[in-house]
Amino acid sequence: MKALLLALPFIALTAAPSQQTSPVIPGRLSLDVVAIGRDGAPVADLEPAEFEVWVSGYRVPVEEVVFVTPESMPRTVVLLLDNAAIGPELAIRVREAARAFVKRLSPGDRITIVPVHGPAVAGTGAEPARLLQAIDEYRVQGLPFRIEDAGEHVLRLLTTLSRQMIEIPGRKAIVAIGAVWMFDTPLPPPGLRDLHAEWLTAMRSMAAANTSLYVIDPVGLRPMQGFSLGGDSGFASETGGYAFVNTNDVSAAAGRVVDETGTYYVLRMADPPVQKTADLRKVEVKVLRKNVTVRTRRGIPGRR
After folding, report:
1. Which tens digit of pLDDT belongs to each residue from 86-95?
2. Per-residue b/e over 51-75, b at no fewer than 16 CB within 10 Å?
3. Fold designation for 1-16+26-304
4. What is the mean pLDDT of the chain?
């Protein structure tokens, strides 16, 4: 079988001249946290005392909490459209989710549309016609691949896209619309191939760039599904994102992602003296208010 080839396009997105990238301050940590209520909507009124942060088992006092909205920091998003691992019958649902996402953007939001295989189109929420045209031109190519090669290329693609956005301020999101098994489960079954090094590089690169992965699966409901797939169980959740699966309403899923990519908290604190030379340090953020859950990345690089 021929290996799956994934394009590694340049992201033509830059920060606005008036915006400056926040410097990395030695001895300090910042975490982006999305808070979600029981109704699935972002929670906007949490206080600093309601957060607990743990790094490698060490509780770190939260010193400052900043609430971010699309008005204070525009979204930066890559829509990654799967044209390799799904069939032509799902192309219409991929377009539906992508179009719903674009139509919900604010004028200042930065967005790039990237097929898994093909050229990228960059724009802003102020020019939806150009972005919608790129979505209309999306076509499924059905490239042949091996599952172990697909995982490697997905991880390398996420690494490359994240590194291209590292100088852009704020939280960034890569929204993959396509096969959940490829994007949310890029590690192949044991024995096929060891991709731990590629997984680790992707995690470190996405953390350094403040980039989270969201996945929208176009397949829809899976009756009698006998295994766990998506949600909080895969790679997306490790990066602070989420995989929306087992739903026929891809437009609603796109709306949820738009909300989460623009409304979040930035927690600032001291960098604890634990595992500073580790490739990744385990991170856990808890919120003390009932019926509120949080999304944040589950690993951050050590300071080398």
Report:
1. 989 999 999 9
2. bebebbeeebebeebeeeebeebbb
3. Rossmann fold (3.40.50)
4. 86
Query: How far apart (Å, rounded) are the C-alpha atoms in residues 247 and 245?
Result: 6
d(C-alpha 104, C-alpha 125), whole Å? 8
Name the 3-class secondary structure at 66.
strand
In 180-194, which positions are buried (b, 16+ CB within 10 angstroms) versus exposed (e)? bbbbbbbbbeeeebe
Convert the pLDDT of each residue in 137-187 to its tens digit.
Answer: 999 987 666 777 888 989 999 999 999 999 999 999 999 999 999 999 988
Tokens of 183: 């994007």
- Where do we find the tokens 């990238």? 21
- The structure tokens 């956005």 sit at 165
Nearest to 219 by CA among 229, 211, 227: 229
- State which H helix or E strand residue 98 sits in: helix 91-103
CB atoms within 10 A of CB 39: 7
- Reading the block at residue 54, the tokens are 């743990």
For residue 84, give the nearest of 155, 137, 7 by alpha carbon: 7
